[in-house]
What we know:
Strand content: 5-15%
Low-confidence stretches: 948-955
Helix content: 40-55%
Mean pLDDT: 81
Shape: globular
Amino acid sequence: MMTWYHSWRAAIRIARRDAWRSKGRSFLVLAMIALPILGVSAADLTLRSAELSTEQSLERSLGAADARLTDPGMGGVPIMQTPDANSSTPVGNFDNKPWPDGKTDINKALPAGAKSLTDSQGSGKLRTTHGLLNTEIRELKSSDPMAKGIMVVDHGRLPQKADEVAATTHFLESSGLKVGSTLTARGLDREYKIVGAYELPDALETDQVNALPGALLTPLDKALEKSGLPGTEASTTQLVRISGGFTWNMVKQANAKGVTVNSRAVALDPPARSEIPIYEQDGWGNYEESTAAKAAALAAVGTVVGLAMLEICLLAGPAFAVGARRSRRQLGLVGANGGDRRHIRAIVLAGGLVIGFAAAVVGTILGLLLTFALQPLLEDYLGKRFGSFDVRPLELLGIGLLAVFTGLMAAIVPAVTSSRQSVLASLTGRRGVRKSSRVLPVIGLIAVGLGAAIALYGSTMTDESIVVAGGSAIAELGVVALTPALVGLFGRTGRILPLSPRLALRDAVRNRGRTAPAVAAVLAAVAGTVAVATYAASSDAQGRAEYEARLPHGVVAVMLDEAGGRDVPAVRATVQKMLPIDVRADVDRISVGKSNCSMYGGAEGCGRYEVVVPKANQCPLWMTDPAKPNEDPSTKFSKAERRKLSQDWRCMENSGGGSAYADSGVLVGDAKLLKVLGIEDAAAGKALAAGQILSFDKRNLDTKGKISIRLVTDTKKADAASEKGKEAPGEIKTFTAHQVAGEPTSYGVSMIVPTAAAKASGMNTVPLGAYYSTDKMPSSEQRQRLDGELDKTGSDINLYVEEGYTSENSIILLALTVFAGLITIGAAGIATGLAQADAEADLKTLAAVGAPPRVRRTLSGFQCGVVAAMGVLLGSAAGVLPAVGLRLTEKRQQMKFYEQALDQGFGSFNSTPYVPIIVPWATLAALLIAVPLGAALLAAVVTRSRGALSRREAT
């Protein structure tokens, strides 16, 4: 008795034999299905392996300790924290009083009977073979059993003496040093020997050295302070081990003393939400992705996966049709020996099953091997070591089943088509005539209309891009369903074509069963390419219009804000030496307090300065009422008043453009700076020469034409006064000023203070950097050599070269064009192979009536070109819709934010949104002309001029 098992077993054996006989076609389909499976399985393995368990994560952060105690910098006031210690906040309401700030002694929070291990971290500049390298400096007795797992020794050993250090492998690679080398720090005349190399499993790219506690940070800080240089800014935590673990109650006791705790016991067994005080506060919560967001994400992933499977099916389907067409005699024999339609369908479907299964096995195995072989490279790319090589069989099985399902789906249409052929037609090779379906075009029209309506609604009525994307996907599927009917419409143009293209077009139209899938595959690939290319070109045009130059074209700026400008003169000379400099303009900055204070630093003994804006020139929207310091001053105005005030000159953003690397845009310099910035104003140059401040923002001038600068030495008192809406205490320096006529582009510089005026007023200035105009734009080689020289200083140098707007989309557009071209040629090539199998009788007839041998080659080329041209034309038209919809959605979103800004009084900081829609004509030209032409020429070249001899078929 014949059961389904026996029939499918026989079908699979036949399909396996046919796949082995047609190795080229089988390999092509297998590769199309296996490559995505390889990528997905490798990605799954990589993500799962890099995903650490709680125990692994704790081992890397705590070692073998039970907890780590940290000072959150809140002055020791009681705090509340999340169980993972990533967030904390002080207990109480600080709306009307200063936020707690300051250090606390974490040792006071140690429980009785606990063992502790100090872990201190700072940073300093260490001497390398290349110069100086800013490096993390750590002091941890890493040989202590409590620290096991934090540092993994690569080679050598951990430090055991005060003059020994170990270094991360990344530091040794960056510095050119090795185990056994001598290490010194800038400012410290003491040598240390590198005795080992280690790595931080969670931060492989960290430059760090480790010494014993007290061996490096403390002496380095003393030496730096003596030299007037910034210190290491070291911070200390305590690793703790205690019998029974560090419980949640113990964590809350430490919080009461102003210390946060990362506890192993709490991480492994978190407390109930009701026991976490911080979650009871307004604005705090255990935020999770909403169900709607998860559904949207799943829908997006499902859409991408579905479209990818559709593309593979459309590409692989014609290949199965080729196999079925070439095996029609065999399938006819099955029917002649008692097989019915379901057996024919089973044989063709078994072909998809066999290749899908093979693709799943090959793709999964290659994904495993590739991930295992590339594990070191993947870990370096991610910047951390895998927790383990985590293979999850069920996930890989699901990915493999996706390949099998794809193979079956690709074989469905060829299976149904083959089963409908009569036994006689299969045995004699006759193709028969079958009318096209009338239902499919109707479904396609409905899908196109529905998808277009959804996309239109999404782009004009909502701000959700997912709606536009979903509607566009539905419309594209509708166009795919319409493809057979559209192919028929193309056939009407055949009467105006020469012989070979007319034959090719007629053949494509008459055999829509093999033409339509190939055209649809090209359509889908090209539509995606055109959509992304249109969106990228439009975004590029918007970026070019919104780009704001920081400096004139070709101008170079170098700034260095550390150590009181100690290294600035050397940096200035290096830039001038290595670049084609025309004019150099040195600039300094105003310094308040110690000479080694940074521009924005709030260290002890460091102050700041403020430009005093006259009250009459202050924007009413920003003027705080001292009686109501916590009230937003803009709330007392209506929306209409806020919109009007946002256009008031007092509230307008400075039209100078750009952004200067200086506090409040104040620089100390001379007339050379005007020349470099391209400001041609003789009066401005004379004013600077006369010792007057040059102002580019008229709000800073009072009625007497003077500018005042307040020197704030006590920043805490100043901050407290500011919170109360009062003026900060400090000495005020007043200068005669010259307001530059008109609104020249000053590139963020609000005023230039002459050096003589600063000295005369008693203000302290320190070197900051320089601006340079160039004879020509510095080349890439010159930039690289300069970067290498500046790196040797070990300083945090801010170097900027104004190159104008540079597009990053050109390479993307080229890659998309190449991708679409490959898909087009592949799909058209498959359709051409099927056409040659079908048209053998026509070619023999042509040869018999005297057609030259080149007709076969020409016809093959035009068959391939016709399929490519139809797919590219339809895809180009279909791809514009989603791009236009997404751009319109973005315009609505940006206009909405702009209107809100106007209502709130911030309209002066925002220009009216410019969201253009640009069609990438160069990409479209390459797709519409170059790709079909290339596909036709390639098909013509690889096709033989003469067909193989064959016996006469029975009729």
